[in-house]
Write a structure and sequence with these properties.
By secondary structure, the protein is α/β, with parallel strands linked by helices. It contains 26 helices and 26 strands.
Length: 746
């Protein structure tokens, strides 16, 4: 960065980062997390699944598998694409993995080997009559900002033909995302969109026709994973794992799942995957007796795995036992890494999320306490610390949408409801006294209590009852029916009951030939417009809390801070007054987005301190509060100066002190005068919360854009607009009532 730019950053940061909180300095020693930066509006490489709210895509599936094999926790970090380099340099992300073009950037990053051979193509409306690139002369063409298509037309390495073609356009417009580009194309605002062929195929399929891809290619390019320049150590680890995935067929399987088989180009010693004859079961390997690792043999065993082995034996399949991170089970299933989730998997509350087998275990949720605790009833857990596994049936029984009022009340009475990753950790906490009870499945509870040799007691009362089923990918009824048919054969000849007896679960099994398969999931896929609308609203509600937090905390800090700044602005001590004037001038004279970038990235560029993902939210509140405090300060000043001089003279005659004069006479009149101006700023703040994504903090409008990109529809943006309007309507109504209440004289 040039010295002039650094000096500007220094001035800005001096006034904007006065309240910066302690920052984490990242070290790559003994890595436990891997943070991938990606554009969340770039399907099929990275985007938000509107059904689950999860970030999915080809690149994220590859990253998931890499992390699974290396024992890392994957952190998916949506970023503002224009800020990708700052995110990487500050250590906020570990790499850029998002259909990231290597061509023209060879010296800017430490690259993996290329893994996708991509081309730039032009998309037009089917009724446009355009069949060749030369016919785009005189037309309006859209490209994404800082994209390969833009570089193909205007970059240093652009061919003379492409430069000439670009000069022939009536206009080469840059848009923020491809959803906007296609909406412009559909409406006729632009005549063509130039983009990556992989993204183009996805968008055209998602939008259901009406578009045509021209046969001619604008340019070809290769995708790689971009790491910080010089970070060869991390690059080598990731690349080594990718080549392992290529060799065992996992890489090609993931590419096939995302429809990119014809595009991938990763080279290595490849092997063949026997996909047609294997059956891959995903399970939590710390969930006995349903699935766990035998410490003597090292084999994965359990009731569910024994059933799966018998099913595979009868159908001539090869069973692949795939331990998974339970929080990533949906991603594993959607990417095709596993064929089903078979692991004491609760159907209740998830009926429409998967294609299910009929229930085969009737299970209950129970509470386990130490034998010496004196606790004998569920009601005695009030004021206690209770542990449950994350995303478990016990957690759902206390906090889920279908939780009973009694269970919700019971959960509210706990001192804390802690979520743990596995039951071994839960029991260690219980044994050590860190928690007072563990709530879990009765089958697992019986196993754990027996394995640990006493010291624990199961309460007689049941928290809830549930049924276990085998969960397949939504709509995969063919595979479900094959497994179901075999299970019923095993039930008829006694094999099912024999396996249940071997695992001590004879009293729990409930598989019946009379049960009918339910296709609630299939019905959900054909949901009505109102169902889809409700689904989108449900996704956006996840971001409403973030927007409200920004709004409320900004007001909490900026309103009193603005009053202090106003006092400094009106101070007779000239150095202080000039300093505050400079602060106000900088804040009001520069965009809020720039200020957020300075607060978040300033510590690195000014002091060499790396920021972490945890700092994003603090940076948002600091940036918003300092910005709005400057505006409120000027509003306060105008209100104070609007109080007639006679009021001040009367106070002096009456012998009021300066504090008495301000709080009893000046402040009430000032407040009445400034309410309309304050209302305008508060309404603006509601809308400005969407700027938080400048530093990759995901709030409601960002989610709306991500859902719009994934669904290929503008509906989420309209719903977001309704939210802003309703919220601002409520704000305006409250402020109007306040203004009328304070209108005690005219």
């Amino acid at each position: 960065m040039k010295k002039q730019k650094l000096s500007v950053l220094a001035v800005l940061f001096a006034f904007l980062a006065t309240a910066v909180l302690p920052l984490n300095v990242m070290a790559d020693q003994e890595r436990s997390t891997f943070t991938v930066g990606f554009d969340a509006e770039f399907p099929p490489y990275g985007y938000q699944d509107t059904e689950t709210g999860e970030y999915v895509g080809f690149d994220l599936s590859l990253a998931e598998e890499v992390c699974s094999r290396r024992g890392w926790t994957l952190v998916k970090q949506p970023i503002d694409w224009d800020s990708k380099d700052m995110e990487l340099k500050t250590g906020a992300i570990d790499c850029i993995w998002n259909g990231f073009t290597m061509n023209g950037r060879e010296d800017d990053y430490t690259w993996s080997v290329p893994y996708v051979d991509n081309s730039q193509v032009a998309i037009v409306r089917s009724d446009s009559g355009i069949t060749e690139l030369s016919q785009l002369a005189g037309k309006i063409v859209a490209v994404q900002s800082d994209s390969s298509a833009l570089a193909a037309f205007t970059g240093d390495d652009a061919t003379e033909e492409n430069k000439a073609l670009a000069e022939s356009f009536a206009d080469l417009q840059q848009v923020g995302d491809y959803n906007s580009a296609f909406l412009n194309l559909q409406s006729g605002a632009v005549d063509a969109v130039c983009m990556d062929i992989g993204v183009a195929n996805y968008e055209m399929e998602a939008r259901g026709g009406g578009f045509t891809m021209l046969d001619e290619r604008i340019s070809s390019e290769e995708y790689g994973i971009g790491f910080l320049l010089g970070n060869t150590e991390l690059r080598d680890k990731v690349q080594e794992t990718l080549l392992e995935m290529l060799e065992d067929g996992t890489f090609d399987s993931i590419a096939e799942d995302w429809g990119l088989t014809d595009s991938v180009c990763l080279k290595g010693n490849t092997g063949s995957a026997n996909g047609s004859s294997t059956f891959t079961v995903g399970f939590d390997a710390e969930f006995p007796p349903y699935g766990y690792q035998d410490t003597e043999t090292g084999e994965y065993i359990g009731f569910d795995l024994s059933l799966a082995e018998e099913v595979c034996s009868r159908r001539g399949w090869t069973l692949v036992k795939q331990p998974i991170d339970w929080d990533s089970k949906d991603m594993e299933l959607k990417t095709g890494a596993i064929d089903c989730i078979w692991n004491g998997f609760t159907m209740n509350g998830r009926e429409t999320d998967y294609t299910w087998s009929t229930p085969y275990v009737d299970n209950s949720q129970v509470a386990i306490v130490r034998s010496d605790s004196g606790i004998t009833e569920l009601s005695q857990l009030a004021g206690k610390i209770v542990a449950v596994q994350s995303d478990s049936s016990a957690l759902a029984a206390f906090t889920g949408a279908d939780a009973t009022e009694e269970n919700k009340a019971l959960a509210e009475s706990f001192a804390d409801l802690q979520q743990v990753g596995d039951y071994n950790t839960a029991f260690l906490n219980l044994q050590s006294g860190a928690v007072d009870a563990v709530c879990m499945d009765i089958g697992v509870a019986n196993y754990e209590m027996e394995a640990r040799g006493g010291g624990f007691t199961m309460l007689d009362e049941r928290i809830s009852s549930e049924e276990y089923g085998i969960g397949f990918l939504l709509g995969n009824t063919e595979l479900r029916d094959q497994v179901q048919e075999t299970l019923l054969e095993m039930l008829a000849d006694g094999t099912f009951d024999r396996i249940a007896e071997e695992w001590g679960l004879s009293d729990s099994v409930c598989l019946s030939a009379e049960d009918q398969l339910s296709d609630e999931a299939a019905a959900y896929e054909k949901a009505s417009l109102w169902d889809k609308l409700a689904n989108v609203c449900g996704q956006l509600l996840k971001g409403v809390g973030a927007s409200l937090a920004i709004f409320l905390l900004t007001l909490l800090f900026s309103l009193p801070l603005g009053l202090l700044i106003a006092f400094g602005r009106m101070s007779k001590f000239k150095p202080l007054s000039w300093l505050v004037k400079l602060y106000i001038s900088i804040v009001r004279g520069t965009p809020l987005m720039l200020q957020l970038l300075v607060v978040f990235f300033g510590p690195y560029f000014l002091f060499g301190v790396s920021t972490s993902g945890n700092y994003r939210f603090y940076a948002v509140i600091i940036g918003f509060s300092l910005n709005y405090a400057a505006y409120f300060a000027e509003i306060y000043r105008s209100g104070i100066q609007a109080v007639p001089v006679g009021q001040h003279e009367a106070c002096e005659i009456l012998g009021y002190s300066r504090p008495q004069k301000f709080f009893k006479i000046v402040f009430p009149q000032m407040l009445k005068n400034i309410i309309p101006s304050i209302t305008n700023e508060v309404i603006t703040l509601v809308k400005d919360t969407s700027l938080a994504f400048a530093i990759s903090y995901t709030e409601m409008f960002t989610l709306a854009k991500q859902v719009a990109a994934a669904e290929a529809t503008i509906m989420p943006l309209f719903i977001a607009g309704v939210f802003y309007y309703v919220f601002n309507f409520i704000v305006a109504m409250i402020m109007d009532k306040l203004e009328k209440k304070m209108n005690y004289f005219r």
